[in-house]
């Protein structure tokens, strides 16, 4: 069964600090991995998408990495801001005929001033 | 920009009421989805549709039904709302399968059943 595990479940950091969120998956055959940001009370918004051949992708202060061999991804946030406080969800799709990707349960990040 | 619009941001209903949650997308996407999101459980798929008038059960369809009469609109129906259906409901749309299956989400409807 396809699974996506995220860690940590929650994280509290001070404004200006960096942090890294982890995502491990068992989805096979792998197609792509996406990181979404979900602000409280809002829908998820896509941050990055990576396919099998991509190792890293950046979106401003957000940098996602992918190791398809170990089936791991990370999302690194640089110089955190208060607006980074949100839930970050890792989503993985397979190359089969499924309409449904596999969602992680998310990491809740709180940035304190 | 892709736009997925959910008709209500907040909704309060009484137990036993019939509840309609509406979702409209403007990108001519084939696929539309309804999820519910609860703390600690992540997103769970209720129903999805890959074409007009087509529907497929997701992981937790009990107590829900859906309607897709037009390509751009996907409705979630709670036939008789219960308190355990209090949750955040998210609609998504997308196209294709597998590697092409990218989902775009609406802002969500927070439903409270009293």
Q: Structural class, from secondary structure content of chain B?
A: mainly beta
Helix content of chain B: under 10%
Uncertain runs of chain A: none
Number of strands of chain A: 11
Radius of gyration of chain B: 13 Å
Distance from N terminus to C terminus of chain B (CA atoms, Å) equals 37 Å
The total count of strands of chain B amounts to 11
Instruction: Classify the beta-strand content of chain B into a percent band.
Output: over 45%
Biggest sheet features of chain A: 6 strands, mixed
Largest sheet of chain B, in brief, is: 7 strands, mixed
Radius of gyration of chain A: 14 Å
**Helix and strand run of chain B:** EEEEEEEEEEE
What does this structure look like?
The complex is a heterodimer of chains A (113) and B (114). Chain A has 113 residues and is mostly beta strands. Chain A has no helices and 11 strands. In chain A, a hairpin with a 4-residue loop joins strand 7 and strand 8. Chain B has 114 residues and is mainly beta. In chain B, the strands form 2 sheets. In chain B, strands 2, 4, 5, 6, 9, 10 and 11 form a 7-stranded mixed sheet that branches. Chain B has a 4-stranded antiparallel sheet with strand order 1-3-8-7, with no helix packed on it. Chain B is globular, with a radius of gyration of 13 Å. The mean pLDDT of chain B is 92. Classes of the chains: A mainly beta (113), B mainly beta (114). The interface between A and B is medium-sized, with 27 and 28 residues.
């Amino acid at each position: 069964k396809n699974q996506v595990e995220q860690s940590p479940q929650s994280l509290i950091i001070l404004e200006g600090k960096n942090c890294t969120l982890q995502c491990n998956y068992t989805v096979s055959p792998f197609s792509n991995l996406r990181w979404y940001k979900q602000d409280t009370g809002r829908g998820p918004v896509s941050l990055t998408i990576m396919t099998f051949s991509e190792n890293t992708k950046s979106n401003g202060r957000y940098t996602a990495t992918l190791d398809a061999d170990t089936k791991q991804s990370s999302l690194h946030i640089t110089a955190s801001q208060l607006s980074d406080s949100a839930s970050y969800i890792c989503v993985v799709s397979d190359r089969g005929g499924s309409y449904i990707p596999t969602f992680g349960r998310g990491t809740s990040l709180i940035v304190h001033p | 920009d892709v736009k997925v619009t959910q008709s209500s941001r907040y909704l309060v209903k009484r137990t036993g009421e019939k509840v309609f949650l509406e979702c409209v997308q403007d990108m001519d996407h084939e696929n539309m989805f309804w999820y519910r999101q609860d703390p600690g459980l992540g997103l769970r798929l209720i129903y999805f549709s890959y074409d007009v008038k087509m529907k497929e059960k997701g992981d937790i369809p009990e107590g829900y039904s859906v309607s897709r009469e037009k390509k751009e609109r996907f409705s979630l129906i709670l036939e008789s709302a219960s308190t355990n259906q209090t949750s955040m409901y998210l609609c998504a749309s997308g196209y294709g399968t597998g590697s092409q299956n990218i989902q775009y989400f609406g802002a969500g409807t927070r439903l409270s059943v009293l």
